[in-house]
Amino acid sequence: MTGSGQKGKRGHAVLGRALALVHTGQVRTRSALTAELGVTRTTAGAVVAELEALGLIEVDARPGASEGAGRPSHRIAVHPGGPVVLAAQVHVDGYQVALVGLGGRVVARTADRVVVPAEPDRVIRAAVEAGLALLRDSGRRCAGAGLAVPSAVAEPDGTALNPLHVAWPTGAPVRETMAAEIARAGLPGAAAVANDINLTALAEHRHGAGRGARHLLVVATGHRGVGGALVVDGRLYRGGAGLAMEVGHLTVNPRGRPCHCGGRGCLDVETDPLALLAAAGREPDPDRSPLEQALALLDRENADLAVRAATSAVVDRLGIGLAGLVNVLNPDRVLLGGLHGGLLRAAPRRLPAVVADWSLWGRSGSVPLVAAELEDGSLVGAAELAWQPVLDDPLGTLGR
């Protein structure tokens, strides 16, 4: 697959496309890969051999099930012992770090909640150091690093413009800080940083409940606040400066709670975990994640009247917000993460009905609502950022 000029570039592009197909689980046999790539069996064999030599995939010599006419084909999969990327997520309670292989597989991770001082440079440094410890313990080759942050990230500067729920200054240079830390650690690749909900959307589209959607709308609430993302034909829609889809600041209750943005009744403060706890008359436990506490309320088999009423109120506000987004964006699937996925499970009929009642097209234009599948969506999404240069050009980034 090596070469010069345009021929060499085409060869690298075919390698990247083949790796992406295996990475996202779209092909599992060599014959399927040959068909998807639209190349000869000889070329497909050379592609598979190159990716195998790079340690990115493995080939099972035992034939798998036949796909159509002809002999059964060899099975192919991402290499379970191949390279990993360091993925970090910062949230209101601290940070999480994981090593993630191809296929979105979490290989190793830190404890769920690691709390450090709030300054962004100290958080990011601590996260990278935790990742280095995981790498040393694993003995795996590192192909890059990615970071998810709870803020819109402005392009092209890579600054966090609205870190409302963490004690960071507006405009914190998170990409520059991440770049300095990975360079200091001797890790390969550029600094890959993006908003956490955008990255959840990317991960779910490639590895979770968003697979196959052409226009995927994601709305999610984690520890605090609400975020949104849109994936169109496999790519995140970022807007002109990377600031699109700030859905948390849609007004769903004009007489509602004051919002951090200066408005009132925003989705951000009317449908997040703290909103559910407040509506149910529960005081948040400072020693537990608000998300954990809110989900625990929904899981109660015999919830009291206050919890049932609170759930209905939050579901209705969420449905109004989703209906507005559906009217504007016309997605073919809506994916709900965090507490919102829990609300869908708790009210599987009520929430779609509210969306239909408030949407322009009503039930005739209803859009499927699904809950997120990935437990570590933002971490896996941060890993996707780090994997992207490898997916674009495996030989150029990892070549011998």
TrEMBL record:
Q: Which family does it belong to?
A: Belongs to the ROK (NagC/XylR) family.
Q: Which SUPFAM superfamilies match?
A: Actin-like ATPase domain (SSF53067)
Q: Which Pfam families match?
A: ROK
Q: Which organism is it from?
A: Saccharothrix coeruleofusca
This protein is called what? NBD/HSP70 family sugar kinase
> Gene3D superfamilies annotated for this entry?
3.30.420.40, Winged helix-like DNA-binding domain superfamily/Winged helix DNA-binding domain
Cite the InterPro entries for this sequence: ATPase_NBD, ROK, WH-like_DNA-bd_sf
Q: Report which superkingdom the organism of origin falls in.
A: Bacteria
